[in-house]
Amino acid sequence: MIVRDKSNSFSLLFAWHGTILPKVLPALMSVILISGVLVYLSREHFFSLPAVPAIGFTIFGVILSIFLSFRNTACYDRWWEGRKLWGGLIATTRHLSRDTHILDTENRELLLYRMMLFTHLLRDRLRQQESNIEHYQPDTQFDPIAFNQIKQQVNPAQWVLEQMQKQLVECYRSGQISDIIYNNLNQHTVELGNIQAGCDRILSTPLPFSYSVLLHRAVYSFCFILPFSLEANLGLWTPVLVALIAYLFLGLDELSAELEEPFGLQDNDLALDSIVRLVERETLSSIGREIPEPLRPWKGHLS
């Protein structure tokens, strides 16, 4: 995620890192080049392009803008839903940390360490990566063989949630907690499972491929044909106006593709590492353990 000071409007005009411009620059330069070549050939009278009625491109542009707006709204909804789910995860871990004071110290710390392990595994699942979790083995008290096989589970995060629930069941059966306390604590594990299910839904259900391809082709077709429509009327100004219009359409197309997958490692994806570290810091503070440093933006990027 890009974290940048927005108070300086002038610097935003020339921002490069984290913007869409680097990704659309090759296509944008191609459109500008085509426009420049058309203007040069026309002014040197090598040939004269017939004036293309602007009404056709106007209708095409309006329709394309509407559908791009629909797609960008859908993609942003996916990004925002992902952020709300991880915001809910932060809230649920805080609730669980407070409510587990009813347990004895050993069981409370064990449950909270497993909760932190769950957040790590959920992030890795969504980003389809593997991170080092070996330091959690002593505090989660999993059997070394079982712990080494966590990543081989079909759903490692779900497996950890299952172990958390088993621990609560054991506390209930041993008489350490009542059925009311058990139901209250177990509700937090259920909520963590619901959060994971919501994230899995976003991860496994992208926008329809044919819809994305249709708009992608339409955007590029519009941008590359645009110079042929404007050159007769704009002359030397053709490359300038074409560049501005193409930047808008190409940028919106690329931005929607980036927001569609909110859990990745692109510049504008969610800062899951930072959220996991936040949960870790708050939980370790609650149980009186050493607190790691918070993750800070590097060159305006927070992972």
Task: Outline the structure in words.
With 303 residues, the protein is mainly α. It has one domain (10-287). 70% of the residues lie in helices and 0% in strands. The protein has eleven helices and no strands. Helix 2 runs parallel beside helix 9, helix 3 (54-99) packs antiparallel against helix 8 (179-204) and helix 3 runs parallel beside helix 10 (238-259). The termini are close together. The mean pLDDT is 88. The chain crosses the membrane at residues 20-41, 47-70. It is found in: Cell membrane. Keywords: Cell membrane, Ion transport, Membrane, Transmembrane, Transmembrane helix, Transport.
Biggest beta sheet attributes: none
Q: How much is the radius of gyration in Å?
A: 27 Å
* Portion of residues within helices: over 70%
β-strand percent reads: under 5%
The number of domains: 1
Q: Which sequence of SSEs, written as H and E, runs from N to C? A: HHHHHHHHHHH
The total count of strands amounts to: 0
N→C terminal distance: 6 Å
What is the structural class?
Answer: mainly alpha
Low-confidence stretches: none
Shape verdict: elongated
pLDDT average, as an integer? 88
Number of helices: 11
Quick overview:
By secondary structure, this protein is mainly α. Helices cover 70% and strands 0% of the residues.
Keywords:
single chain; 303 residues; mainly alpha
Give the arrangement of secondary structure elements.
Elements: H1 9-13, H2 21-43, H3 54-99, H4 105-127, H5 137-140, H6 144-148, H7 156-173, H8 179-204, H9 209-234, H10 238-259, H11 272-286
